[in-house]
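I'm curious: can you give me some protein's one-letter sequence along with its backbone structure tokens because I've never seen that pairing?
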Amino acid sequence: MFKKWIKKKVGQKEELKRPHSQELAKQTETKELVDNSSSRKSPKAPDQSDSIQEKGLKAGTQRFGLFKRLKKQMEKTRGGFVRQIDQLLIGRQEIDSELLDELEELLIMADMGVTTVQNIFEKLRLEVKKKDLRDPLALKKRLKEQIINLLKVPSAPITWTPSPFVALVAGVNGVGKTTTIAKLAYRLKQEGKKVLLVAADTFRAAAVEQLETWGRRIDVPVIKKGGGSDPSSVAFDGMEAAIKREIDIVIVDTAGRLHTKVNLMEELKKIKRVISKKVKAAPHEVLIVLDATTGQNAISQAKLFSEAVGVTGIVLTKLDGTAKGGIVVSIVDQMQVPIRFIGIGEKMDDLRKFDPEEFVEAIFAES
């Protein structure tokens, strides 16, 4: 089944390194509606109806704009294996074993993972055998449905309550962890939340300064100590400050040295214990930040961090820098942990809440 794939020599992997942007996205200016005092008063009910319609139209327009942005930023993935799928299906009159084998190979090469792809095609082959699936074009639609189903991991959405809600953020160096924390804090602040950052990555010399710089830019306070301080002590101070200041959400940055280091995992466990003693049921969310351009290596990172601190959500960065967007499916399928957010660019609002259906539609959309 995998003869062609096994024989292929894996080419050079492109890994696009995108610099972290230091520019903040400008806040959208709101226009005040001025009532004309000389105009005739309209009945209240119609005014409310018009307002609701305007809000609906505005929300719909905004969502369409966000989808266009997502579609644009996923061009590399769409121009990679998705375009190859389309080329493979052109002119096909029926679904045969050769077509299924070639499609299977394409998905594996897109970093979707051998096990994940096998599970998908086991179901597809069964449908073809039962004559439930005959049209090659219908095959693409069914493939999209299978991918969406895999991405829909049963999980409760983040409510960001109770206060203080504590989110512990982990990830190896170089994945964009600190920048992601800043973007998340910015997003939450825009939603009216009172946010506090805790610089518990005291092992890396520039980590504390980097987070402090981001804090100043987005006007969010940062709890810190000098480099080399005990990370658990910083986390404890952060929890105390959050309670005293009546903070809504606390985001704790943690060390990101090589994930193979046992002492790093032990330190993360200690931080988690200290937090839970100070704030009941905390941390309420444990996020791991993964770099999409690292492919299957991201999965090994996720597994090791999850064993140490029980990862509850994934943030996948640099999706705009890879043609192998299939890694999204592989990570979710193997980890059975939901992707909470995806990074699709350098702007502050390029950290997007992950929607499985929207994501799949964006990568399969017509150019």
In short: The radius of gyration is 23 Å. The chain is about 50% helix and 10% strand.
